[in-house]
Design brief:
Distance between the termini: 36 Å
Number of domains: 1
Radius of gyration: 17 Å
Strand content: under 5%
Oligomer: single chain
Largest sheet: none
Structural class: mainly alpha
Order of helices and strands: HH
Shape: flat
């Protein structure tokens, strides 16, 4: 298993699905946390953000890590957090 701030992508067909999340033991930092979100990859960047970027002369994107994913006591992957790659790509297209 990868470090903190890890995510998985599942391709699901239409219809109901059973999803089971399990946490075993404690994390290396503070109390163990387990979070889940369901998002449609490819739709993480809002249409409003794309429209604003398209009408701007320049776009500044602040991407990276926050205090939940960056610490001295835990390793993390070198990939950007979920959605940040898509945000950068969409702003570059705009």
């Amino acid at each position: 298993m990868k470090a903190l701030a890890d995510y998985r992508t599942l391709n699901l067909t239409a219809g109901p699905h059973k999803v089971v999340l399990e946490q075993h033991g404690r994390g290396l930092r503070r109390a163990a946390r387990l979070r889940m979100g369901i998002v449609n990859v490819g739709k993480l960047v809002s249409e409003d953000a794309k429209k604003m970027a398209a009408s701007a002369d320049a776009v500044v994107v602040a991407a990276g890590f926050d205090s939940d994913s960056e610490a001295e006591s835990a390793d993390r992957t070198f990939g950007l957090p979920l959605g940040h790659d898509e945000l950068i790509q969409q702003m570059a297209v705009a």
